[in-house]
């Protein structure tokens, strides 16, 4: 039975552990495609251009908007982020699940265009722990950390509209829940029946 690729959005406050959990989820998974976003933000130490993000300047970002190259894009704490459409569509056409690590405004744009998209929100076990993780990561200034924490409250409120909420207390448990969600979403009758009819 040929697997049909689906799109999964992963959102959650900055510092909650999305990158950490996704890195663990992607281990030994040939059936998943990580959508590498374009951003105008500067690379953090250790981030690799083309793997973590496509790091581009504001002019290139505007050019891509003009070419309708983004599935969605948004501004987040002073920088632009966008999902290149082409690679997501190619991955899905090849039967891979596309995983998009994007914030809530972009998630709303994708779901308006493609309502079948599955939305998963990752929440912290507590606010104190979120602040601790953001600080411990050591990549943002105290001012940026405060902006990201303020934004986190708005984001958590919008989690109500998501399909699933995973609490990242331990990485192992969060990954286990993500795997279960991905698996269950491929057991939906609409997909299975059309596969059986082919
Ligand atoms: P995000 O991608 O959501 O911004 P990161 O994956 O960069 O977050 O994680 C932020 C910090 O929290 C990192 O230092 C990471 O090692 C740590 N972290 C992630 N998940 C956990 C967890 N379950 N328990 C403790 N620390 C965690
Ligand atoms: P960071 O700067 O911490 O890597 O990411 C900041 C926020 O931008 C996170 O919430 C992340 O999910 C989001 N983000 C990353 N790529 C994209 C994207 O392509 N589009 C949108 N809308 N948000 C993104």
Radius of gyration: 17 Å
CATH topology category name: Rossmann fold
Shape: globular
Number of helices: 8
| Total strand segments | 9
- The CATH homologous superfamily corresponds to P-loop containing nucleotide triphosphate hydrolases
CATH architectural name: 3-Layer(aba) Sandwich
Strand content: 15-25%
Describe the structure in your own words.
There is one protein chain. With 198 residues, this protein is an alpha/beta fold. It has one domain (7-197): P-loop containing nucleotide triphosphate hydrolases (Rossmann fold), CATH 3.40.50. It is 44% helix and 21% strand. It contains eight helices and nine strands. It has helices at residues 18-25, 58-66, 85-93, 104-113, 127-137, 142-158, 171-185, 189-197; strands at residues 7-11, 32-34, 37-39, 53-55, 70-76, 79-84, 97-101, 118-123, 164-167. The strands form two sheets. A five-stranded parallel beta sheet has the order 2-7-1-8-9, sandwiched between helices. A four-stranded mixed beta sheet has the order 4-3-6-5. Strand 5 and strand 6 (79-84) form a beta hairpin. The longest helix has 17 residues, at 142-158. The chain is globular and about 55 Å long. The relative contact order is 0.22. The mean pLDDT is 94. Guanosine-5'-monophosphate is lined by residues 14, 37, 41, 72-74, 76, 81-83, 101-103, 105-106.
């Amino acid at each position: 039975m040929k697997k049909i690729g689906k799109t999964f959005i992963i959102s959650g406050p900055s510092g909650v552990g999305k990158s950490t959990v996704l890195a663990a989820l992607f281990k030994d998974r040939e059936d998943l495609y990580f959508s590498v976003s374009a951003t105008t933000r500067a690379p953090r130490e250790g981030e690799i251009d083309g793997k973590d993000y496509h790091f581009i300047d504001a002019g290139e970002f505007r050019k891509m908007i003009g070419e309708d190259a983004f599935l969605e894009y948004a501004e987040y704490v002073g920088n632009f982020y966008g999902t290149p459409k082409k690679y997501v569509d190619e991955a899905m056409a090849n039967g891979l699940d596309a995983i998009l690590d994007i914030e809530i405004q972009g998630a709303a744009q994708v779901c308006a265009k493609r309502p079948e998209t599955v939305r998963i929100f990752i929440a912290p076990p507590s606010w104190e722990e979120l602040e601790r993780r953001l600080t411990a990561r050591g990549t943002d200034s105290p001012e940026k950390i405060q902006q990201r924490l303020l934004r986190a409250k708005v984001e958590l409120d919008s989690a109500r509209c998501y399909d699933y909420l995973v609490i990242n207390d331990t990485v192992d448990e969060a990954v286990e829940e993500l795997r279960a969600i991905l698996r269950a979403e491929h057991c939906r009758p609409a997909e299975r029946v059309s596969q059986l009819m082919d």
